[in-house]
Write a structure and sequence with these properties.
This protein is mainly β. It is built from 3 helices and 25 strands.
């Protein structure tokens, strides 16, 4: 997730007009769109501009100007501009002289694309202008977030904790953003364990990357907790034992975003967060919750529910008339 060169509202230095050798511009939009929508547009005088245009019938156009050079990249319509979030990608590679333009509705397994040669590469100066918060770039209300990475594909989502998430430590609750390597944190199974690595990230905070707020006190926590939708959370109780024959299971926080236990939080286009690595997967104690630490080197200590299993469990838990610690 450290591949991001730029994200919506990120403060970046201006002035460097040297072209990036390769990159991938990504934006997510809320569908449906009206006819002839200018999704994003930035101008720096008459010499530099970058804009993204979308229309259900005409398709998608990326228009890029740098001095005397102008390029118009087109993905011909009609396109499946139905309901739900959609993603537009525009990639360039100066080594091969190629560009690609793609569109798809997220989670639908569909993708339309076009390709060609002769792109103009974006520069750090242009990225800074696009990301500025002062209105330098025109953003349509349907634009959820945008960013630029050097990878060939959009970075995958990842589990993380909000900076203010209170993690139990040897010295009491400490905000996740204040933890440092070597800090002793409390775990459910193995007592105090040292944090080996604190990975600080700035990631998209809307669309398919939107985090989840787990609301107090539905799962036993004392305050609302902000997590990645991919963060694994422990649930236990009668519903777990009845459905899965286990005392505890793990499921993604996103499965708990039913509007009551948790809700999606898309207030920020980009969000600062942390991932805590304890070497092996451990169950962190977080304000009455148990959360899996961020290690991919070993198997999780509890069964991890598939999406359909998690949905079944959350529906059963939500039917309680009174929520208690799960």
């Amino acid at each position: 997730m450290s591949d991001w060169l730029a994200l919506s509202d990120m403060d970046l230095p201006e002035g460097d007009t040297r072209p990036l050798e390769r990159g991938l511009f990504i934006c997510e939009i809320a569908l449906p769109l009206g006819e002839g929508t200018v999704v994003l547009e930035w101008h720096d005088g008459a010499q530099r501009s970058f804009s993204v245009f979308a229309d259900p019938q005409a398709g998608i156009v990326v228009l890029h100007r740098a001095g005397q050079m102008v390029r118009r990249h087109v993905l011909q319509g009609p396109l499946p501009f139905g309901q739900g979030p959609g993603r537009i990608t525009y990639g360039w590679n100066r080594f091969t002289g190629a560009w690609t333009l793609g569109f798809g509705r997220i989670g639908r397994g569909e993708e339309c694309s076009s390709a060609g040669i002769g792109p103009i590469a974006l520069s750090p100066h242009e990225l800074a202008g696009l990301c500025r918060r002062d209105g330098a770039a025109l953003r349509h209300r349907s634009l959820l977030w945008f960013g630029v990475t050097q990878g060939a594909r959009p970075p995958e989502r990842a589990p993380w904790l909000g900076l203010r998430t209170p993690v139990d430590t040897a010295r009491g609750p400490v905000a996740a953003g204040a933890l440092r390597p070597g800090e002793l944190v409390r775990t459910a199974d193995n007592g105090l364990q040292p944090v080996l690595r604190v990975r600080r990230m700035r990631l998209p905070g809307r669309g398919s990357f939107a985090p989840v707020v787990l609301r107090a006190p539905y799962l036993g926590q004392g305050s609302d907790v902000l997590l990645s939708a991919d963060q694994l959370v422990v649930l236990n109780g009668a519903e777990v034992e009845y459905l899965f024959g286990a005392e505890e299971v793990l499921l993604s926080a996103g499965a708990l975003a039913n509007g009551t236990i948790g809700r999606l939080d898309g207030r920020q286009a980009a969000i600062d967060c942390v991932a805590l690595d304890l070497g092996l997967p451990e169950l962190l104690l977080v304000d009455g919750l148990k959360l899996l630490s961020h290690s991919a080197l070993a198997e999780a200590p509890l069964p991890v529910l598939q999406a359909y299993e998690a949905q079944q469990l959350v529906s059963a838990v939500a039917r309680r008339s009174l929520f208690g610690a799960a």
